[in-house]
Request: fold
Amino acid sequence: MTVLEIDHIDKAFGAHKVLDAMTMEVPEHCVFGFVGQNGAGKTTTMKIALGLLKADHGVVRVCGEKVTYGNSTTNRHVGYLPDVPEFYGYMRPMEYLRLCGEITGLPRSQITARGSELLEMVGLAGVKRRIGGFSRGMKQRMGIAQALLNQPDLVICDEPTSALDPIGRKEVLDILASLRDRTTVVFSTHVLSDVERICDRVAILHRGTIALTGTIAEIKEQHRHHGFVVECATPSDLARLAAAEELGAAGISHTSQGTTMVVTITQTPTGDTRSMATDLAGVTGRNGLTRRPTIPPADPAPTPSPPDQFGGQLLLHALTRLNITPIRFEQMEPTLESLFTEVVR
Amino acid sequence: MRGYLAFLKKELMESTRTYKVFLMLVIFAVFGMMSPLIAKLTPQLIGSVVSAQMASAIPTPTAVDSWTQFYKNVAQMGLVILVIVFSGVLANELTKGTLVNVVTKGLSRALVIAAKLTSMALIWTVSLALAFAMAWIYTSYLFGADELPHLGVAVLLLWIFGLFVLSLLMCAASLSTNNYMILLITGAVLVIGLLAGILPPAYHYNPLSLASQNMPLITGAITLSDIGPAIAITVALTAGLVTGAILIFRRRLL
Reply:
């Protein structure tokens, strides 16, 4: 089921167009990272979804119900954690939760039970102080507790970690990650490591539209730069590797720095290079030993091998042939950061 | 309904814990107590600075002087303090963003306004009642229990006027998040009323009569029907201002 559905939303502040036919879907039970630069329109999108701002065009649905500006009834499905949550400073944590519970219409007994359970979860149980004296991190945790009080189907968090120290950030992220089974969490951020840490899905907002969306694994797969990082013990080893015949094959390029080489495979193997890999497998090494082919000869009906596998085998061969033992041999993984930079460039 | 009661409870807790209730009660109790005392002590005070002959010309103060002092203090300074104490009732929440949580939890904006008005009206009522009780006790103690007709009606008119001022304040507060702007709008409307008071016949219709014609009413110089239209207009304006405040606040960004 789709919990949050944003359908071609436009929003402009004066002449400044913030959202331009923005479309996004958030499925049930996931932690959804909503990423964008500062000022990309993340908060605007969230406020529209909460009925706190009016969209110029387009429809937002929460649990299948249309969101209206002003008095939105869809908010009963939603828990909201603002970027800098503000509470009544003269209240104690439980008093605040009681106010929230009474407004949402929870029965009295449930307010007390759920309230103390949530305060326990966010580590504020037994805090008798007034909220006015809370630290940023405590307020953020208090914000999570109030957002979860009515057992919402969707929790919207606006940059929940941006103002916190590393410990506070870890605490908040751990709490959000633990919510996956109970509810759906959408959280906006520009801290990509937070997204990688806890999110299943991600959407990158750029120039008013979603530039990229999907599960993190999918996105990484789609944007994989096929390549490897090889680190040799000495620069001379690296030089020998760089001169290797295998690295001269079509579709393979490499750059070296110090003792590290980055090999990029830009093409899937053609018949030529495939056979070359197979041939090379049988090349006699300098020590006179004939290496056994480790790549099986091409199948009668050849299926193209993935470029990674092909390139990796080729490199390993070169290394074995030249008798070089690398300190590090690693397949390149696209980082969310590199993807993000690519998208917003 | 439950949301309204919860928010009203929150408003009263806020007023108590931020000492607004305390401040209002103390100031109004002092006003109530001070008015008869000032009336009683005025001849002595004047007598201490002028000659004995001139002092003897000053008439002996009566209960009427005591109530004159009361309406001067409460209807002027009292209302000013009421407005200042509550000028931030909405602005503080809007600038801090505390209402976002409450509204996204499903409390309608109309109920936010209603609960805030109820809480302010309650505090105004208790404060005025306290001031009146103090003034009544001290007046009867110092001047004897003179039978003054319309004493209750006169204070009731001031009470209605206070509600009018609060709804005016609420309407101004839904327009602006700036405290000074809110005070300015409220003040400007009241000054227009004062200026209208320059034309003598205007008092029949001027809402300000509810806070300025109290003594003439008590002494019998005018009757209640003389300011009947003014009362009707004030009640109508109060209802209009409350509706206006809700309509404006509905369209507001939080």
About this structure: The two ends of chain A are 33 Å apart (CA to CA). The CA atoms of residues 201 and 214 of chain A lie 6 Å apart.
